[in-house]
Amino acid sequence: MEHQALIPHLFRTEAGRITAVLCRNFGLEHIGAAEDITSETFMAALETWPYKGIPENPAAWLHAVAKNKARNYLARHQRFTGKVAPRLREDGASTIPETEIDLSDNNITDSQLQMLFAICHPAIPVEAQIALALRILCGFGIGEIAHAFLVSPDTISKRLTRAKEKLRTAKDLPVFPSGQEINNRLDAVLLTLYLLFNEGCYSETQDTVLREDLCLEAMRLTYLLLGNNSTNQPEVNALLALMCFHASRFPARKDRQGGIILYHDQDESRWDAALIAKGAEFLHRASTGNRVSRYHLEASIAYWHTIRTDSEEKWENILQLYNQLLTIAYSPVAALNRTFALSKTKGKPEAIKAAVKLQLTDNPYYHALLGELYVDIDNAQARKHFETAHALAGTAGDKRVLQTRLDALADQGEHAAKNSGLP
């Protein structure tokens, strides 16, 4: 891999690791310095590698440069603040003690976990938590995060600045919480990872319907939680099970033009059986304990969708799971999805009544679902809703799918007219 492609790849994988370790060493009040050192490290690679060649172990090279820059920063900081000098004079020492920057795999993992919990502080708004996680732990640029949130880069910059200020004023090392504090903070951590995964899974940015890079980062960070005894809890296993079940169908979800392939049109042979098995394993591990979280229920719904064959048992189970989900974590999207399961168990007319009550008139998926439900019941209504969904759709891929449904309705109308003998 040439350096032009290798450095961005390494930035995505290594920048978050380096920043997390430096924050652990420096304290959150120096989060800006940690990011600056990380950026300067990659700038050094950009300046050096084109002339001297790519080192044999590029990641180790970056770590070594980051360590040197961190040591220099600490030495300068200690001199300026004078916090060390007075003690040195008292001790008769002549040099500033060298701080060891530990970039071992174990310390990187611990540092990332600590940073994840620090970022998900209740005082920081959820959207800022996700933006910080993408920026600090996943190495995403301001522009990429702005695309993910459908806002301007300036908005993201201000959001990040405010969130970092809250972290800086904490003036604490990003220590890993203990005891009950883990449980208090874990819900926010899981919600951040869940929303990060959803952002990739149902992307409307960059005119793409699926951003696997966001999903993989969410899965990687969730997997880190399972590696720690304190956070290897049923809810975490349930969330990773949910992610595995959804990710198992990624290869079959996009057509060659990048458009979405709907569930019933997907090639089942392209579903990843190993990931489905992995998801089932995590869901089994999640079955311990007494608490049933939204992740348990959503993972169970996703599990049933890995069984392609339609059956009364399948859709009745999905409907009941949605009923439970809406009682503990209501959302309009979940309510809308429930109506599809309702159509499979109780019929389209009852599902239409339930869907109309939601009044999600600005949501393209609301109109797309009503379009599907009205097909063969009232095709004029079906067309009307498909046209509205087409107008509201956020990506070219979604518009192509909806145009296909409109074309099918038109073909169906022509065929009916021919059979009736009308001109």
* Strand-residue proportion: under 5%
Distance between the termini: 63 Å
The number of strands is 0
Task: Spell out the helices and strands N to C.
Answer: HHHHHHHHHHHHHHHHHHHH
Largest sheet: none
Give the helix proportion (percent range): over 70%
The low-confidence parts are: none
Total helices: the number is 20
Calculate Rg over CA atoms: 26 Å
Write down the overall mean pLDDT: 86
Structural class: mainly alpha
Rough shape?
elongated
Summarize the structure in words:
The protein has 423 residues and is an all-alpha fold. Helices cover 71% and strands 0% of the residues. The chain contains 20 helices and no strands. It has helices spanning 3-26, 31-52, 58-81, 85-91, 105-119, 126-137, 142-149, 153-170, 180-201, 212-226, 234-247, 250-253, 273-285, 294-304, 312-328, 332-346, 348-358, 364-374, 379-392, 396-420. Helix 1 packs antiparallel against helix 2 (31-52), helix 1 runs parallel beside helix 3 (58-81) and helix 9 runs antiparallel to helix 10. The radius of gyration is 26 Å and the shape is elongated. The model has no long low-confidence stretch (mean pLDDT 86).
Summarize the helices and strands and which ones pair or pack.
Blueprint: H1 3-26, H2 31-52, H3 58-81, H4 85-91, H5 105-119, H6 126-137, H7 142-149, H8 153-170, H9 180-201, H10 212-226, H11 234-247, H12 250-253, H13 273-285, H14 294-304, H15 312-328, H16 332-346, H17 348-358, H18 364-374, H19 379-392, H20 396-420
Helix pairs in contact: 1-2, 1-3, 1-5, 2-3, 5-6, 6-8, 6-9, 7-8, 9-10, 9-11, 10-11, 11-13, 11-14, 13-14, 14-15, 15-16, 16-17, 17-18, 18-19, 19-20
